Structures are given as structure tokens and as C-alpha cells.
Amino acid sequence: MSENTSAQMAESIVAGSREEHTALAAELLARAVQSAVDERGVARVALSGGSTPSDTYRHLAGLTLPWSKIEWYLVDERAGDPLGERSNYAAAARDLDLIRADRGKIFRMASESPDLAAAARDYEALLRRTFGIAGAVSFDVMTMGIGDDGHTASLFPGLGVVGIDDRLVAAIPEQPEKKLEARITLTAPVIQEARLVVMIVRGEGKRAPAAAARHAGSEEEIPARLLQRAKGRVVWVLDKEAAG
Ligand code: 6PG
């Protein structure tokens, strides 16, 4: 089932079950990868972390894709051991079975660095080299989620970080009151440049932030509103609980 309202430019798909939710999101990713490879010979995919996309990544891992033509990047990363439990890189590599199955290259963010600002600059330099120094950093597809507080990527509310527009990649300070470690994240201008953003959102707790993100208002309050200014296609893949 799908819905579209004129107030939101984004598309929304509401899945009837967890299996359908997983399959729909994976199918969107698979199609975007295939058409990027058909058109440009390479698919550049940026992956978000968190718990929700895990099923989608595992499902995708079972599909037939031009794996060797895919370059994987991270949307954001949590400071700490790159092989640890909190690592978005480790989770994505595991779920997609990237290393053992040799499925394209994955470019991780240096979460172990004592200087995350330097690690963010290094990742930005990598993106500039990859996409071409004079070209836009336009990912073919990006997966994203939303937090209960309206954050997306590691662009959290109340930190003044959703407005960063002078860098492609930024270091985000730790937030001890939320028990959150420091982060490295792609910034809003890069997210808004993606050809396709697949928002993978599930559960009742996401209903209010997902609705707020698709209505006008302050981006500082609900950073996921940055998607309202996306240049590419944005598809919200919701389950019934998140759709309300
Ligand atoms: C991260 C993310 C983050 C995530 C949301 C939703 O590293 O935490 O990339 O932006 O997408 O927090 O996370 P859940 O899927 O765990 O709810």
C-alpha cells in the first residue's frame, strides 16, 4: 500500500508485515544499485547503522546483484572499536556478508581515531577523490533511519549540527546525558545530494518523529526534516505502527 500527500514531496510506502517491510526496502536498494551499475558502471551506496536496517541488509545479501561493482560507505559511525558491538561498519559488513563473500569495497570511517575531526576530514578527502574533485558527492543510494528524537544520520537535535554546510563530513561530540558516544557523520548537504534516500523506519516509537519529519518546521528540532530539501528521491519505507 502506498500514500502520497501534496504536503510531502517524499514518497511513503507502508508495509503490512515485518517481512514485507524488509523486502520492500531491500528491493528499492537492489534496483538503485542495478541501475547505477547499468548507467555508470559503479554503484556507490552509503549505509546507516542502528538496529532497524539490519533485516534489510541481510535480505539484500541474499539477492543477485553486481556485487563487485558496489562501493559501500558509511552515513555515520560511532566512536570506538571498529570491530565492536556499537560499530556501524562491523554491523553492515556482517549483515551484508561483505568481507567473506568479497562483495565490493567498504570504506569505513576511522571510529578508533583519538581525533574524530581529523577522521572526518580524511573521510571527506576520500569522498572528494572518489566522486571527482570538481563533481558533486552524489551517492546513488543512501539508507537512513530516524531516532525517537528526530535525528537522522548522527545529526542530533539541539547541537546546531544539522545546519553544518561547510563540510561534507563532521565530527559530533559525545552526549553523556543521552549516553551517546561521539560520532562521525555525513552532513546535510551530502545527504540532500543523494539520488535516492531510503528511510527505513519501523515501530510505534517512530510514528511521531516520522510524521514530524515530513511536516514543515524547525530542522534544529527535528533534523530529519533536512530531507524535505533533498534534491533526489526520498522514499519512506514504514511499517503500520510507524505509519500510524
Ligand atoms: C546510528 C544511525 C542513526 C539511526 C537512527 C535509528 O548510527 O545510530 O545511523 O541515525 O539510523 O538512530 O536507529 P534505529 O534503527 O536503531 O532505531
Compact overview of the structure:
The chain is an alpha/beta fold.
What radius of gyration results from the CA coordinates? 17 Å
**Overall shape:** globular
Q: What about the largest sheet?
A: 8 strands, mixed
Return residue spans where pLDDT drops below 50 for at least 5 consecutive residues: 1-8
Give the SSE order as H and E letters: EEHEHEEHEHEEEHEHEH
Let me know the number of strands.
11
Features:
244 residues; alpha/beta; 8-stranded mixed β-sheet; 3-stranded antiparallel β-sheet; 30% helix; globular; disordered N terminus; binds 6-phosphogluconic acid
Describe this structure in words.
- By secondary structure, this protein is α/β, with parallel strands linked by helices.
- 30% of the residues lie in helices and 20% in strands.
- The chain contains seven helices and eleven strands.
- The protein has helices at residues 18-40, 54-61, 88-95, 116-131, 188-193, 207-213, 240-243; strands spanning 2-3, 11-15, 43-47, 70-74, 76-78, 105-107, 141-144, 169-172, 183-186, 196-201, 233-239.
- The strands form two sheets. An eight-stranded mixed β-sheet has the order 1-2-11-10-7-3-4-6. A three-stranded antiparallel β-sheet has the order 5-9-8.
- A hairpin with a 7-residue loop joins strand 1 (2-3) and strand 2 (11-15).
- Helix 1 (18-40) crosses helix 2 (54-61).
- It starts with a strand and ends with a helix.
- Residues 1-8 have low confidence and may be disordered.
- The chain binds 6-phosphogluconic acid.
- 6-phosphogluconic acid is lined by residues 48-52, 75-76, 78, 88, 145-147, 151-153.
